[in-house]
Amino acid sequence: MSSSLRAIEKKVALRKQVYKTVLGSPFVNEAHMWPRVQDQAVVLELLKGTVLNKCVHLQGVERGQWPLDVATDYNEIVKLLGAAGGPQELDAILFVCPRDSGIPPVLLQQVPLMCYTSRGTVTLVQLPQGSHKLLLAEPLYCKEGLLLVHCNDKLDGKFVAAVRDKTDPLRFPWLDGIAYQRTDLKLLKTTAPLKRKQK
Amino acid sequence: MASRAGMAKQSVAEDGTILVPPPKAATGNKDHYQRLNYLYQLSMFTTLNDKQPLARTYAKNLDLVSKKTKCSLLPQVKRTICKKCHSILIPNKTASTKIRNKARRKDPKNDDLVIRCVCGEEKVFRIGLNRDYRSFAERGGNIIDV
């Protein structure tokens, strides 16, 4: 019987790495859902200059009296996106921090779909990693990393045009006319216990 | 007996786990996975065309086949199917989403993400407990594309 170091190690081993096949879906692949943003740093600077820096000076002022119409609460944003057939169609830009820690991925999983299915024009902009800190500053305090800015007379038109120019539109080809997608198989790397022979 | 040259090179990690290199292709049950994939897409298509009963039947078949054949779906896929009525959950169409906090003091630790299906069934995710939580499949390096 071999007494090499590798053979001894294998005797001691309790678990073995295994690869399990799992079915993914092209419909819920988050990488395809988030629209690409060109020059994320520039977009962040624009956001800082036009929205965030203004909001810093509005501590203690009621939200209704702000010179900008913004929404930071998740439920409020979902309600705005889901309001179908309202008196006014929603025209807004939604800034999201999908790559930052402290934001559960399950929370943001349906955000691109919600934007797409909303009746108005919603531009979804993903911010670079580390931008959640900026949105957490008072008085905005975007706990969930979502900031919806209404595009109305109060907001600078150049800012809206620049952000929309640098962001790709949302694309969900499977929602418009579905075409069969190939089976998206993946391997899940995990471990399984080694079965020892009973003596 | 398998020849030594044909065997994959194995090593043992510090925690006593035998490390095995990944196979070159996903093996076994490929037919079942293709059937599941087809059923999911069919269910999505019929949901979008407002044929809910048919869509739910397809999704129920999908659930039964995956359980009977022990073929797993990624959590991201399973989250889009209602466990009660087997509807495909599409926001603003067959599902609504909100953050709920039932605690008296509204401590952010008690935040729950609630995805409510049209049938009334709720999927509740306790997001407040650990906002950095990622399921095993969502953690980096655990999923390998084939």
Automatic annotation (TrEMBL), chain A:
Pfam families: RNase_P_pop3. GO terms for biological process: intronic box C/D snoRNA processing; maturation of 5.8S rRNA; nuclear-transcribed mRNA catabolic process, RNase MRP-dependent; tRNA 5'-leader removal. One of its GO terms (cellular component) is nucleolar ribonuclease P complex. Transmembrane segments: none annotated. The lineage of its organism: Eukaryota, Fungi, Dikarya, Ascomycota, Saccharomycotina. One of its GO terms (molecular function) is ribonuclease P activity. This is Uncharacterized protein.
UniProtKB/TrEMBL annotation, chain B:
One of its GO terms (biological process) is tRNA 5'-leader removal. The lineage of its organism: Eukaryota, Fungi, Dikarya, Ascomycota, Saccharomycotina. This is Uncharacterized protein. GO terms for molecular function: metal ion binding; ribonuclease P activity. The gene is KNAG0K01720. It comes from the Eukaryota. Belongs to the eukaryotic/archaeal RNase P protein component 4 family. Gene3D superfamilies: 6.20.50.20. Keywords: Metal-binding, tRNA processing, Zinc. One of its GO terms (cellular component) is nucleolar ribonuclease P complex.
